[in-house]
Amino acid sequence: MNRSNYTVVLILLTFFVISFLTNITGPLIPDIIKGFNLSLTLVALLPFAFFIAYGVMSIPSGMLLEKYKEKKMMSMAFGVALVGSLILAFSPNYLSAVLSLFLIGCGMAILQVVINPLLRTAGGEENYAFNSILAQLIFGLASFVSPLVYSGMVAKLQMPDVGGGIAGLLKKLTPPDLPWVSLYWLFAVISLIMIAIIIASRFPKVELSQEEKAGPIDTYKELFRKKVVLLYFIALFCYVGAEQGVANWISQFLYTYHGYDPQTTGAQTVAYFWGLMTAGGILGLLMVKLMDSRKVLILFTAIALICLSLSLFGPGKIALVTFPLIGFFAAVMYPIIFSLALNSVTEHHGSFAGILVTGIVGGAIVPLIIGSLGDLAGLKYGLLFLYIPIGYILSIGFWAKPIITNKIITRKKKEA
């Protein structure tokens, strides 16, 4: 038996750290624009650098995992994230920020490849569904916490009398006009602590299931010849692109059009976006037990589009509510799209899953398109681009034809 409750806790901690480091970019964008004097297009290259790392590292990580195993791969991942964090902490400028986010993205991509099979082995297959949901809730919690930590750290460092201790040390290490850089010293410390924990830990032996193994190149060629594979790859691309397109631009939009402080109101609104996404995921779990998942997808996506419209064209007080609500109703999109996709093919699920995960590069492309359009016509009109990926997701509920539909709870009819 390879069960290990300790390893499960370590994996859940890793999910927290991944999310904490991943979803902080959005709240930082107004500060980065101001600090480095950037256009919307240039600042959009930062999330581009982070998410393009997933496209670069996902498949190589799967190959390296079979050779170097989980412990070395996780240590290497946090080592790469440590280097990335220190590059920006020691030399805060635009080019170092791009390189830093790319390296941190590479580290997070490696971790995503490693920890899911490890969670299945350490927690047991019979507990995998529960542990996966728990991991997603912790992931959402960290996304909620990280903007609040940023807001608190910046407020502390801007006080005239910080005093000694950690805050005093960070103030000495951080340029006075770039207090947000202090976060990258924090990321470096977190990465170093995680490396120490992983080195000191014992890992169970993991046997990859058929679902988790990547197939030969011929398998990928065969899959890409199927229309349904391309349609669902585009779907995952659209989802991650839309999610990051909203999250990365909320704070800057509220500052540009409504004058809200990005270090307080902006950061808190982004935190609520991720927090409500976690809550929406819990409701989504219940809904797919009561309704066909395609109907749930149509309902939630349609409401998300309404919330997007109110956010872009309503008054500021409405936007503070509807931007986070987009996260609430977007929560069901990823799991429903993924399950519909895998239930639409009869074989090669492991390779197909790898293709779908590569769709994460949408998180690199869509925010960049929004930023480029924003420079041309204004950020509000750049954000109109989001209607395209979210509209595509809405269409899935109408054309999806899975071989197996989700099991729903039905009331049994009494026999006469």
Structural account:
- The protein has 416 residues and is mainly α.
- The chain has 2 domains: 1-212, MFS general substrate transporter like domains (Growth Hormone, Chain: A); 214-405, Growth Hormone, Chain: A.
- It has helices at residues 5-22, 25-36, 40-90, 94-123, 128-157, 165-173, 182-200, 217-224, 227-258, 262-290, 293-313, 316-330, 333-342, 349-358, 362-377, 379-382, 387-399.
- α2 crosses α3 (40-90), α2 crosses α9 (227-258) and α11 packs antiparallel against α13.
- The longest helix is centred in the first third of the chain and has 51 residues, at 40-90.
- The radius of gyration is 21 Å and the shape is globular.
Specify the structural class: mainly alpha
Task: Please give the alpha-carbon distance between the first and last residues.
Answer: 50 Å
Helix content: over 70%
CATH class of the largest domain: Mainly Alpha
- Estimate nothing, just give the exact number of structural domains: 2
- Going by CATH, what is the homologous superfamily of the largest domain? MFS general substrate transporter like domains
Work out the radius of gyration. 21 Å
Q: How many strands?
A: 0
Q: Which word captures the global form?
A: globular
Q: What can be said about the biggest beta sheet? A: none
> How much strand content do the residues show?
under 5%
Low-confidence stretches: 412-416
State the CATH topology of the largest domain: Growth Hormone, Chain: A
Mean pLDDT across residues: 87
